[in-house]
Amino acid sequence: MKVIKLILILLIIVISSLETMNYTIIKTIIKINYDDKIKEILIKDIKRREGLILHSYKCPAGFWTIGYGHQIEDTNLKITKNIAEKLLIKDINKASKELIKIYKIKPIKAYILSSIAMNIGLNKFKKSKMNISLIENNDSLLYNTLLKYCYYKNNNGKYIRSNNLYISRKNEVFLLKLIKYE
User: Fold this and answer.
1) pLDDT tens-digit profile of 118-127?
2) Any long-range contacts for 124-131 (C-beta under 8 Å, 24+ apart)?
3) Is 95 within 8 Å of 114 (Cβ atoms)?
4) Is the pLDDT of residue 28 over 60?
5) Residue 78: which residues within 8 A CB-CB, separation 6 or more?
6) Domain extents for the chain?
7) Where are the beta strands (DSSP E) in 62-175?
């Protein structure tokens, strides 16, 4: 896994310096299914951010939740790790399909953006500057806006920056930059 991380870091450096680098060439050079690796990294990041809780609980936003941040109605529920992973994939796929339908973006971009759409909710996503950035195809605005979504409201109503969310947003920007040259 460390080798893959190193490859990804080197690729972002190369991509940043070579504006005309072709995504297909990169995939051919390193001979991996790039989209699958990006999905794998994203899933690991969501798992890291959300943590795994196998019984129902109220998340910081006040919603009943289980597994890796899956929202539920039942307040007395228990599941297995396997079910939690299936729910996570189902949630990502559902959010991705909605993003593709609304913004007509490539599936891998929708997959990456599904992380924040699930985190803040699709309605809030559609009201944010991310909406404008996708409509206008403005990647710079998208990256900058993503990085602003790393705050949560504490019990006193004060917004606090979460390093955990900031790491996720940085990862999402990193992955979006990797696929930019597709």
Assistant:
1) 999 999 999 9
2) 126/102
3) yes
4) no
5) 54, 55, 56
6) 2-49+80-179
7) 64-67, 70-71, 151-153, 159-161
pLDDT at 6: 61
Rounded distance, CA 14 to CA 156, Å? 45
Q: How far apart are CA 95 and CA 121, in angstroms?
A: 9
pLDDT tens digit sequence for 63-80: 899 999 999 998 899 999
Q: What is the CATH topology of the domain spanning 2-49+80-179?
A: Lysozyme (1.10.530)
The pLDDT tens digits of the residues spanning 136-156 come to 999 999 999 999 999 988 778
The pTM of the full predicted model, rounded to 2 decimals, is: 0.79
Instruction: Report CA 12 to chain centroid distance, whole Å.
Output: 18
Q: Environment class of residue 153 by beta-carbon count within 10 Å: exposed (0-12), middle (13-18) or buried (19+)?
A: exposed
